[in-house]
Design a protein that fits this description.
Layout lengths: L2 E7 L8 E7 L8 H14 L22 E2 L2 E2 L20 E5 L8 E3 L2 E2 L2 H10 L19 H11 L6 H5 L6 H12 L8 H14 L10 H5 L7 H15 L7
Keywords: Iron, Iron-sulfur, Metal-binding
Pfam family, one: Fer2_3
Protein name: Succinate dehydrogenase/fumarate reductase iron-sulfur subunit
């Protein structure tokens, strides 16, 4: 395959950015999208040019660090992470635009790399449980209904890639925050901090400059792990209950 890849190049946070077109040929349809960027970078290095900076780690769809906007869609045309997107999703001769996440809470560091530590700070505000130290409890000592366990697991699959933020026209992190709140609120271990958790995490989300949710649904459509839209409703219910009762456990 031969492609024209237009990549966002930006030397630093304060620098002007622009799309730069590069011809890339010899691309196998079985390559991942990141492998295609590797080929591009190798050729740039051989030509004495600055390689394109982009985030990646596991390349197995687990860590979520590889997120980029491809042809206007977070992670590209398939519902998966950028590292798991294969070049067979494109046709020979295509023009492919590659840009970083666009959101107030994700400042650009360089090229396709953005600072997503805002999501870490939202989790630090309340995305945890307090557990006493000592020996591990016996298995099934605290029974959890199967529907609650299944829904908690569905929300626990969030990898914090930020695609929901990048896809949202408001740059909202509501689906990410909702996944963390819903996951823990369904489990008995999350009960003690249930009210303070949702209040603190929503406050942290707002403080990071993310936009508000207007239920457009683009977040769910772009989420590679399929976090359900209903989680946002759960977040709203938890927040209202906590706000009405102060910081006691919502009912």
């Amino acid at each position: 395959m031969k492609l024209t890849v237009r990549v966002w190049r930006q030397a630093g946070p304060a620098a002007e950015g622009r799309l730069v077109a590069y011809p890339v040929d010899g691309i196998s349809p079985d390559m991942s999208f990141l492998e295609m960027l590797d080929v591009l970078n190798q050729r740039l290095i051989e030509d004495g040019d600055e390689p394109v900076a982009f985030d990646h780690d596991c390349r197995e769809g687990i860590c979520g660090s590889c997120g980029v906007v491809i042809n206007g869609r977070a992670h590209g045309p398939e519902r998966t992470t950028s590292c798991q997107l294969h070049m067979r999703s494109f046709a020979d001769g295509d023009v492919v635009d590659v840009e970083p996440w666009r959101a107030a809470g994700f400042p650009i560091v360089k090229d396709l790399v953005v600072d997503r530590s805002a999501l870490d700070r939202i989790v630090q505000a309340g995305g945890y449980v307090s557990a006493p130290t000592g020996s591990a409890p016996d298995a099934h000592a605290t029974p959890v209904p199967k529907p609650d366990a299944d829904l908690a697991f569905d929300n626990a699959t969030c990898i914090g890639c930020g695609a929901c933020v990048a896809a949202c026209p408001n740059g909202s992190a509501t689906l990410f925050t909702a996944a963390k709140v819903t996951h823990l609120s369904l489990l008995p271990q999350g009960g003690p901090e249930r009210a303070s958790r949702v209040l603190d995490m929503v406050d942290a989300m707002d403080a990071e400059g993310f936009g508000g949710c207007t239920n457009t649904g683009e977040c769910v459509a772009s989420c590679p792990k399929g976090i359900p839209f209903a989680s946002i409703a759960t977040l709203n219910r938890e927040y209202l209950a906590a706000a009405r009762s102060g910081r006691s456990e919502p009912r």
